[in-house]
Design brief:
Elements (H helix, E strand, L loop, with lengths): L1 H13 L2 E3 L7 E7 L5 H12 L6 E4 L7 H7 L2 E4 L7 H11 L3 E5 L14 H9 L3 E7 L4 E7 L6 H15 L14
Parallel strand pairs: 1-7, 2-5, 2-6, 3-4
Antiparallel strand pairs: 6-7
Length: about 180
Amino acid sequence: MLLQKICKWILRVLGWKSIGELSTDPRIIIIGFPHTSGWDFIISWIFYISLGGTANILIKREFFFWPVGLILKKMGGIPIDRSKGANVIRQVIRQFNEREYMHLAITPEGTRKRTKRWKAGFHTIARTVGIPVFLSTFDWGRKEMTIWGQFELTDDAQADIQRLKDFLREKGIRGKHPDQFTTDY
């Protein structure tokens, strides 16, 4: 509770506005946009804690050395093996199947660099495990952190990604480094 109050205060001091509410579903995927800076993780973590939640994120297992690994796990980090032959999607599905509570935050761009090709792993995971997907944005232009609500998936991952891009373009969401984000196809 104290950490939640501190995080609310930090957001207010930094000029950020929180919009939306956490899902009461125990297992969800939160897709966050736009991912253009390492600061996205920090501001998103503070935002989610300020709402009373705990989000998990995927981090290369190489970062889980002492004492950094302890801190990352406390912050919701999940070590992922990205070595040759390792299947990240299968690892995440296994994590969901082993946990009663998991709010996994993923950025479908998969990089902080400008890319037109977004990854559909969130789609595969959600459909396989049978969990909802929620859309969240961190708009550095307006300084607004928003949970827009549940994003209904179809059977067509690429069509769903195009709908996401259209939505973000319509809303005018800007990243910390706007030149590193595109909603182009």
